Amino acid sequence: MALLEKFQQLAQAREALAQISADPFRVTIEQILSPTEAMINGRHTILVGTNNYLGLTFDPACIEAAVAAVKEQGTGTTGSRMANGSFGGHVALEHELARFYGRRQGVVFSTGYLANLGIISALTAAGDVILIDGDCHASIYDGCRMSSAEVIRFRHNDVGDLHKRLRRLGSRQTNTLIIVEGIYSMLGDRAPLAEIAAVKQEYGAYLLLDEAHSLGVLGEHGRGLSEEAGVDAHIDFIVGTFSKSLGATGGFCVSDHDELELTRYASRPYIFTASPCPSVIASTRAALEILQSRPELRARLWTNAHRLYDELKKLGFALGPEPSPVVAVLFDQREEAIGFWNGLQDLGIYVNMILPPAAPEGRSLLRCSISAAHTPEHIDRICQSFAAVRQSLPSMRSR
Amino acid sequence: MPHYQEALPELFEVLKSYAKEGQVLTEDTHLISDLGLDSMKVMQLLLETEERFDISIPLNVVTDVRTVKDFARQIEHLTEQQ
């Protein structure tokens, strides 16, 4: 096969999609108006697919901090921390994250994706085992691919299956890193973390928790599922991102294991990439402050999430298993999801479309991510639009 | 702890439901091109095989498995190891 022939299959799939739909994976936002509104295709649109959980992307304090950092420190760091050195902001943010989680160590990465790649590939090696929940994010799978460890999936949120697979490992149990997520990005469900932590303790394994979608969302102080489930002490490594509730770009890991500090010398995704820009670090630090000082944002986020989940449920849509700021609307047929996505787009509602094999169990889904910045009127309009599109699609009318 | 020859008939049992109508399964049957398994079906097959043999199949070995013979060899190896 010639080098580029492999793209033919993708080209055909794209062409087939183009026959029935605008390309849902190449949407251009012509003008961003607020955390929840934008102009798309010349149309005023409510954004319901941004992961902007606390709505902080336009927060005046975050913007002011970013602008001041650009003026004082320039636009970029132009290299890696190992070669070019760390800026004061990098180190300060690491201390602030460690303090927020009550941990001894913190490391910042340039993106959340790189945080998973960097930590998983540095912590594990040949002879080790990584046990991951089947619904884990692609960054976790890719981190596993960078490692020489054996990678085993367990059934999504199935503690019995995890238990069984740990038992099979015998003496390798203590060389095992279990990886789960706080809130899963596809269906918006939580991991049964207390039970998973208990199993991990029983077998002497290690546990890494990705709080990408749960930081700022769960727990009294917004620390995530580890706080909500009351098992902070049993989580060995917490990974998270700045690109959701903190409204910027970047990632981190915190831990009480002193070895986390040593991963800086072993983690290729930490070493061989440019460090985060000063403006990004500055706005993230401001957002982390706000996350702690304004719990009302979290309360409003949950009010909005319940309002959307309950109303869509009442309308008879098949949804993810529990209310959360990630509300997944499930479709058995790919074409239905595509038709629905286009219908919503025409009504000025932007959601994320996920098609197989990216969605669990071969289904298709439209993912709504709710923000504290959505108004009750936004939520009502989203629900009305879902109802209206269903009426307009012949295959859905009878449901 | 099944050896190759013991694992093979059990594996054929599992694979029966993935075969096309009238398709004869042999050791040389190719799992992807002959059975036409997509990624979802491969995952389902792995889970069923794991249950049947009480083993965990690492994702790392999946790319090396092309035929029924490769699969049975891996099962033999994993049952010895686990």
Description of the molecule:
The complex is a heterodimer of chains A (399) and B (82). Chain A is of the alpha/beta class and 399 residues long. Chain A has helices spanning 7-20, 60-73, 81-84, 88-101, 112-123, 138-146, 159-169, 193-203, 225-228, 259-262, 268-271, 278-293, 295-314, 334-346, 376-392; strands spanning 31-32, 37-40, 43-47, 105-109, 129-133, 150-154, 176-181, 206-210, 237-241, 251-255, 326-331, 349-350, 352-354, 364-369. Chain A has a seven-stranded mixed β-sheet with strand order 4-10-9-8-7-5-6, sandwiched between helices. Chain A has a four-stranded mixed β-sheet with strand order 1-2-3-12. Chain A starts with 6 loop residues before the first helix and ends in a 7-residue tail after the last helix. The mean pLDDT of chain A is 96. Helix content of chain B is 56%, strand content 0%. Chain B has helices spanning 4-16, 39-53, 59-62, 68-81. In chain B, helix 1 packs across helix 2 (39-53) and helix 1 packs across helix 4 (68-81). The model of chain B has no long low-confidence stretch (mean pLDDT 91). The chains are: A alpha/beta (399), B mainly alpha (82). The interface between A and B is medium-sized, with 16 and 13 residues.
